[in-house]
Design goal:
Order of helices and strands: HHEHHEEHHH
Strand order of the largest sheet: 1-3-2
CATH class: Mainly Alpha
Helix content: 40-55%
Oligomer: single chain
Number of strands: 3
Number of helices: 7
Largest sheet: 3 strands, antiparallel
Number of domains: 1
Strand content: 5-15%
Radius of gyration: 16 Å
Shape: elongated
Amino acid sequence: MAAPLDPEMFDELCPSDLSPIRFGDKWAGMVVRCLEDGPRRFSELRVPLRGVTAKVLTRSLRRLEADGLVRRAALAGRVEYALTPLGRSLLGPMDVACAWAREHWEELLDARDGVATAAD
């Protein structure tokens, strides 16, 4: 069994929210990261994804399952989610996108601040 997920796994200003590169919906990339080390129950996923409602997390998991990236399994009265081989193959491209976002973090923040200031 995998170690518990760190509640602080994602920063409040998570690069996935700032990055112009998206993997599915807003939460999909973070869900994939949560499943990287093995299957997880829904309640486990909610720990680091504290900003997501149960309804939105359910929708995200269903989309990931429909796309063949996540497998849902009912086991002895509980449900677990795990990455499929296709979902696991997404980890490499996500690493590249995350590295790019870290490298350009300040530029992305400046661009967002500039747009917000211009709109005021």
